[in-house]
Design goal:
Number of strands: 14
Oligomer: single chain
Strand content: 15-25%
Radius of gyration: 18 Å
CATH topology of the largest domain: Oxidized Rhodanese, domain 1
CATH architecture of the largest domain: 3-Layer(aba) Sandwich
Order of helices and strands: EHEEEEHEHEHEHEHEEEHEHEH
Number of helices: 9
Low-confidence stretches: none
Distance between the termini: 34 Å
Strand order of the largest sheet: 1-7-6-2-3
Shape: globular
Mean pLDDT: 95
CATH superfamily of the largest domain: Rhodanese-like domain
Number of domains: 2
Structural class: alpha/beta
């Protein structure tokens, strides 16, 4: 079993074993003030694409090839991702790499907050750009992304679990973020922050504890799990979480509520229906 969750305390040994590791910082706010030595910044906006009202689509395959090539990613190269919010943007980056067929992706648990909490070295120095000599060989993984029509067609599928990772107020329709309020019919709600330990530098809670909570919520490995939020940002965190827990069948609804909630003919539920 491969452990793709890398603790900050393990990083020095990991780097010795993998001297060619590429470190990618997906932070929204902190990269210019402090980042891991050698880390390259992936601007979160480069990970999103607007399609009509939906803001959470992945970049086109051509745009991803350009992004990975600009970052200098090699096919079998280990990549470590982290951010400054406990895993939302890092999860999005991991999902995009997996979509592209890159498997050696590790999450630095807690990101920059856990790293600095331990007093480890940071820098403001930006490493020189080293683009790959040949375009990144994309190997698109359709199974990791779900569209509107597929979700609509499977609302009654007992083998699917639709996981709404938004705040409870949005799920229940008490807070509006799109034309429609509420949630996708049958979706269960467990906000993404449930798995983050704020007392330990935004690290994940123990995976065994998380797994117990998921099972109690009906999120089990024998189901196909489709996760969504508003723009598939925080839902990408739970995609990463389920990957770390080795759930075999997980996909992201990229359109998320910014698509579902802005189509006036979308079926919705309002209130707590758990």
């Amino acid at each position: 079993m491969m452990n793709f969750c890398l603790e900050p305390e393990q990083f020095a040994d990991f780097r010795k074993k993998h001297p060619n590791v590429l470190i990618l910082d997906a932070s929204q706010h902190t990269y210019s003030q402090a980042h891991l030595p050698g880390a390259r910044w992936v601007k979160p906006q480069r990970m999103m694409r607007q399609v009509d009202m939906a803001a959470g689509y992945p970049p086109t395959q051509e745009e991803l090839i350009t992004l990975w090539t600009d970052l200098g990613i090699q096919t079998e190269q280990p990549v470590v991702v982290y951010d400054d919010e406990g895993g939302g943007w890092a999860g999005r980056l991991m999902w995009l790499l997996h979509l592209s067929g890159h498997q050696q992706v590790y999450y630095l648990n807690g990101g920059i907050h856990a790293w600095t909490k331990l007093g480890y070295e940071t820098t403001q120095q930006v490493p020189p750009a080293v683009a790959a000599k040949t375009p990144y060989p994309l190997n698109w993984q359709d199974k990791l992304i779900t569209d509107y029509d597929a979700v609509l067609a499977n609302l009654s599928n007992v083998d699917w679990v639709i996981w709404d990772t938004r705040p409870v107020a949005m799920y229940e329709g008490r807070q509006q973020s799109a034309a429609l309020i509420g949630h996708i019919p049958g979706a269960m709600n467990l906000p993404w922050t449930f798995a983050i330990d704020r007392t330990r530098g935004l690290r994940l809670k123990p995976l065994e504890e998380i797994n117990t909570q998921l099972e109690e919520a009906g999120i089990t490995p024998d189901k196909h799990i489709v996760c969504y939020c508003h723009t598939f940002h925080t839902a990408a965190f739970v995609y990463m979480l389920l990957f770390l827990l080795e759930y075999p069948s997980v996909s992201g609804y990229a359109g998320s509520w910014s698509e579902w909630g802005n189509r006036y003919n979308s079926p919705v539920e309002i209130g707590d229906v758990a």
